[in-house]
Amino acid sequence: MKLVVLRAPIKQTTVRYNNQVAVNDSAYEDAETSSDYWTVWASELLTKGWYDEVELWYQSDEEHKPGKFKHSSGMMERYWQRGYIGAMEEKLDALFVRGDHADYQIVLDKLSGAYRVYYPSGPYYCPGTKHHWDLCFIEDLRQAAFVREKTGAPVELFKKSCVGNYFRFRSQQKKWDICFVCCAPIHKRKRLLLLRDTLRKMKDAKDEKSAVVIGLTDNELIKEFDGLDVDFVGWIHRSMIGDTMSRCKIGLVLSTAQEDGCPRVIMEFLASGLPLVVSEKTCCSTIYLNRTTGMLATDEELPEAISELVAISGLYDVTEFYKTSLSMGASVRHFVEVMKANGGPVK
């Protein structure tokens, strides 16, 4: 039984922001050391025996030419492009499509016989294709009606995880109260200014808290935090981000309805042992946020929620919850259960 995971080309990306450059080389060659989520997720499906074959398909670019590459785990990678479609005409049982890309249509036209699963890459995002879907995954129940209307397919929650290997070893010494990750350029300024305003309100109320900001940030935005106890550590590769997270008491997630439905940093905070304060605008399912992992807050409630959670952060033990409910193994098991319940091909 064969599964193909179709996704955009992110084998290696170079992030450029305010004259800063960071290369995101995610070590895809070996699933055991990879920091890429879908590489590890697909490998887990293969090694646990749910499929006999699993392949990751990316669109090729100037650096990565069409062809096949095999992982040490036995999983296959494949690059494709418009002029390299013939190799796609082969039998597979299930096609899992993550997000959307202009050239996905080409692949979907060729692979017409497989059971098709779609997982949007944003809160209300659907593919620009009229192909039939057998099953759709979403990140929050607020997406359900929209996705169901657009696709006509059964809609189920996807249980997201993270690459947990990089969050096992933690610092016991706490340096900051708050950890904030601001990597995606979308709405970066808006989120950072909300963080600034929140910290200023707390300082004015004689309740100042220290924070660390991870991510590429321009100097003008950094100046907005003058007088506040905030360290900007720049871009940190996902394979090393857990060390910085573990030196904080809580994680803070600020988002907008236009961004990723459920940011992966939520699971990374939990894997690092940090309880969370999450902005109300984030499409965060109760799968991740509940009484044992943290609290939801409006923009106005953020100062009070942060102060409360920092004070009692030592009482939270989110590690066990992550291991049993949100680990990569738990994510894969949930996927398999949902596939079976909806008649999907899985061993």
Beta strands, count: 16
CATH class of the largest domain: Alpha Beta
Order of helices and strands: EEEHEEEEHEEHEEHEHEHEHEEHHH
CATH superfamily of the largest domain: Glycogen Phosphorylase B
Strand order of the largest sheet: 5-6-4-1-7-8-9-10
Question: In the CATH scheme, what's the topology name of the largest domain?
Answer: Rossmann fold
Morphology call: elongated
- Gross CATH architecture of the largest domain: 3-Layer(aba) Sandwich
What structural class should be given to the helix and strand makeup?
alpha/beta
* Largest beta-sheet characterization: 8 strands, mixed
Termini separation (Å)? 7 Å
Helix content: 25-40%
Q: How many discrete domains?
A: 2
Mean pLDDT: 81
Q: Catalogue the unreliable spans.
A: 13-27
Q: Which range does the strand content fall in?
A: 15-25%
Radius of gyration: 21 Å
How many helical stretches? 10
